[in-house]
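Can't paste images in this forum, so I'm doing it all in text. The chain is below; anyone willing to post the predicted structure tokens underneath?
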Amino acid sequence: MPTKNNILVTGGAGFIGSHLVDRLIEEENKITIFDNLSSGKIGFIEKHLGNTDFTLIKGDILDNEVIEKACRDIDLVCHVAANPDVRLGASDTKIHFDQNILATYNILEAIRKNNIKKVVFTSTSTIYGEAHIMPTPENYGPLIPISLYGASKLACEALITSYSHTFDMQAWIFRFANIVGPRSTHGIIVDFIRKLRENPTQLEILGDGQQEKSYLHVSKCVRSVRETVRELLT
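Text version of the structure:
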């Protein structure tokens, strides 16, 4: 029987992370979730709790010692953990620095110290800022984020690419844009549902009606990550 790969998923109890865990377990991998459950939910991963190939570590990536231990004997890290609420940056200017940039630095240090060579990172299309091409190609530039969230994710990308070059790692970065689907806890669809529950006869839509956005179902974005992980581990 072939040896199972050990994969660590940070933020694995969250919206995208839990869907990714579902798919990775189907590939007969051994999965460890690292999540502080601040936005993730036990209910999203409850069906895996009795699986011997599944481990949940409740912890904070800002705790260097705990995340370093979690990375022991890991073959690949999927770094999904982040504070995903873009609007919070306008009222708390430090939250995305701590939970995105500093958290990514800590996981990269844990990866380096444990000699892990493969990392997958979920970034965001907000790094492009107000892009003038829709859908936006990967080589679009210049990258001028207009939110602190987008700036923090761009900083994370820079850290990951520099660590990859300096410490001989292999990294894949996904720039997701407006992911929708089951288990979503924030975003436009959740906002629409909340508003319609409050007033089924009227729906307030923010903006001037001229804005354009791309949307992707969570199953499709997770499928692309799963296929990348499969390639990285073969």
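The chain has one domain: 6-232. The radius of gyration is 18 Å.
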